[in-house]
Amino acid sequence: MVRLSCRTGRKGAEPLKWQAVDSETLNQIYGEPAPASIVKEKDRLIPSYRRVVEASPFFAIASVGPDRLDCSPRGERGGAVIIADERTLIIPDWRGNNRIDTLRNIVGDPRVALLFLVPGSATTFRVNGQAIVSCDPDLLDSLQQNGKTPRSAIVVSIQTAFFQCARAVMRADLWNPAHFSEAETLPTAGQMLAEASDEREGGEAYDRAWPERAARTLF
User: Please, where are the H alpha helices in the chain?
Assistant: First the structure.
């Protein structure tokens, strides 16, 4: 593991500064991409790609807006997205914290990137495209789960779709239970919220109430 240290002076730690490289330097360092990494990129979901997306219960969606970047987790057992056709994905927007950072970003800038994970598989899958936020009643009604209807849905028009090689997941040994963190060794949501809010929010009461609140508001 590489560890970095900050230079310190009388005023405490100084920010680390590194020399940036330009595009030409990167090309010199890395050379040409392997042919397989180019031909795998498609403008739609070919049948094998569709199978991976259908198997994925979890993905992260990245978006960009005028004020912030955002990368949000999304998940649902049985399939995290609905495949409308080979070029279109639909994402129900289920209950969350109402920050709606992703939705605000998409309204201002339609570019999105999705990264899908399939538990037990080292291969990940990526989709880049253009998205809209829709509140069309017919669309939302078609997305009902457990008697609940999402307040909106994200419709993604696929521009590029491709699988990512397994090296990152292999290096992380991501799905090996022997390396799973024990929950009691990590700060709880209530503890982190209390620290972030200078004890105004969170704490033990938050943690005690969370499991029941989460169960009531999954959809």
Answer: 23-30, 35-39, 47-55, 101-108, 137-142, 167-172, 189-196, 204-216
